[in-house]
Write a structure and sequence with these properties.
- Helix 3 crosses helix 4.
- The strands form two sheets. This protein has a seven-stranded parallel beta sheet, sandwiched between helices.
- It folds into two domains: about 190 residues, Rossmann fold, CATH 3.40.50.2000; about 170 residues, Rossmann fold, CATH 3.40.50.
- It is built from 16 helices and 14 strands.
- It is of the alpha/beta class and about 375 residues long.
- The protein binds uridine-diphosphate-N-acetylglucosamine.
Length: about 375
């Protein structure tokens, strides 16, 4: 390995990381004389539908190192990842480690990197929900506190970091790298046929005849946050709202996260959903398929941060099933399409009616232009 090149390790662990790393890896590979690159997959997500399919659709090269950490408690996941990643760092001696997003893999590898005295860069820095009950908020705060270079998506993220005392020269506002993936995959996603997609991914026994699916004539829900799915007092009323008030009016597609499916099955709500006309339960979708649904939906109901951002670009009205967001730029008051509804059914009902009457209003925040990876790699070229 030539020491004259900048030796970079980048890390992915879970589903929302893959669309953030793909553009970075592609851009780095354009400069083989400047960079040596190792891609590490911690294996936090391991199902084909949660991991492998994204490598394929986003043309990410197979990981050079797979840590195969798998599921567990937070301490187990973080601890096992730190132990395994320390060995990778010691063997590969990188100049820089690059982490993305806010999952447990991000936090674990950040801590290990700094304990090994290696420089750390964080892509998607500075996002804050100010809610320490969210594991991701802890991951974001730890990662940003330890990072030497902090790549941000917007001015509000810069302001958060400056308030926390991060020196201004470490903060680089480069835009949203996830939108690089969205723009690169927009055409293949748009080409997908909706009914074929639903038939291909629908769960056995859970595909109810619905009117032929057409753009703007269906809604989508995704749920995976512990605060929404772990407590039946929250999940059951939400399910009733969907079966009794949404699906009778407009077909509802629900790609079910493994965590959510476990809870629905163990509580008996699964059978109820399977029987509900107008609800199409599917396995977790691939990247193109999820883009296809988010670009065509009449209304998106979600607790995912990434979907809030994608809906912003498509202009799809989005009910964010949380009380706060680390992505305020996606909210209507900042020009976006999303509104916070928490898990209060009254509020969800009122906002759902309002959202269903709204026209599609695409919004592209500054630098969410598909060229973020170029700006990030340019920073590393300057360091060389
Ligand atoms: C993680 C991230 C979250 C992100 C989400 C996207 C953290 C703290 N949370 O949450 O920020 O929005 O990914 O999905 O890092 N499971 C499988 N197959 C898999 C992976 C998980 O069946 O490939 C099941 C396991 O039962 C596991 C559970 O899902 O225990 C939760 O997985 P985990 O990685 O702990 O967190 P997510 O809820 O997916």
């Amino acid at each position: 390995m030539s020491r004259s090149k900048l030796n970079i390790i980048s890390v992915v662990g879970a589903r929302p990381n893959f669309m953030k790393i793909a553009p970075f890896v592609r851009e780095l590979s354009r400069f083989p004389d400047i960079f040596t690159h190792t891609l590490v997959h911690t294996g936090q997500h391991y199902d084909v539908a949660m991991s492998d399919s994204f490598f394929k659709e986003l043309s990410i090269p197979a990981p050079d190192v797979s840590l195969e950490i798998g599921s567990g408690t937070h301490a187990e996941q973080v601890g096992k990842t730190m132990i395994a990643f320390e060995k990778v760092i010691q063997a590969r001696k990188p100049d820089w480690v690059i982490v993305v997003g806010d999952v447990n893999a991000t936090c674990a590898c950040s801590i290990t990197t700094k304990k090994e005295h290696i420089r750390l860069a964080h892509i998607e820095s500075g996002l804050r929900s100010f809610d320490l009950d969210m594991p991701e908020e802890i991951n974001r705060m730890v990662t940003d506190r330890l990072s030497d270079l902090l790549f941000t998506t917007d001015a509000m993220a810069d302001a958060n970091l400056l308030k926390e005392g991060v020196p201004a020269d470490r903060i680089k506002r480069v835009g949203n790298i996830m939108i690089d993936s969205l723009e690169a995959q927009r055409a293949p996603a748009a080409a997908l046929n909706l009914p074929t997609l639903c038939t291909a991914f629908a769960l056995p026994g859970a595909h109810h005849p619905a009117p032929p699916l057409k753009d703007n004539r269906f809604c989508v829900i995704t749920l995976h946050r512990p605060s929404n799915v772990d407590d039946l007092n929250v999940l059951a009323p939400l399910v009733s709202f969907l079966t009794d008030e949404v699906a009778p009016v407009i077909p509802l597609i629900w790609p079910v996260h493994p965590r959510t499916r476990k809870k629905l099955e163990s509580s008996g709500l699964w059978e109820l959903l399977q029987k509900a006309p107008g609800i199409i339960l599917t396995q977790p979708l691939g990247y193109h398929e999820m883009l296809r649904l988010s670009m065509g939906a009449k209304v998106m109901l979600t607790d995912s941060g990434g979907l809030q951002e994608e809906c912003c670009i498509w202009g799809t009205p989005c009910l964010t099933l949380r009380w706060n967001t680390e992505r305020p730029i996606t909210l209507r008051e900042h020009g976006g399409v999303s509104v916070l509804v928490g898990n209060d059914i009254e509020r969800i009902r009122a906002e759902f009616r309002e959202a269903a009457a709204l026209p599609r209003a695409p919004h592209q925040p500054p630098l969410w232009d598909g060229h973020t990876a170029e700006r990030i790699v340019a920073c590393f070229k300057e360091l060389k």
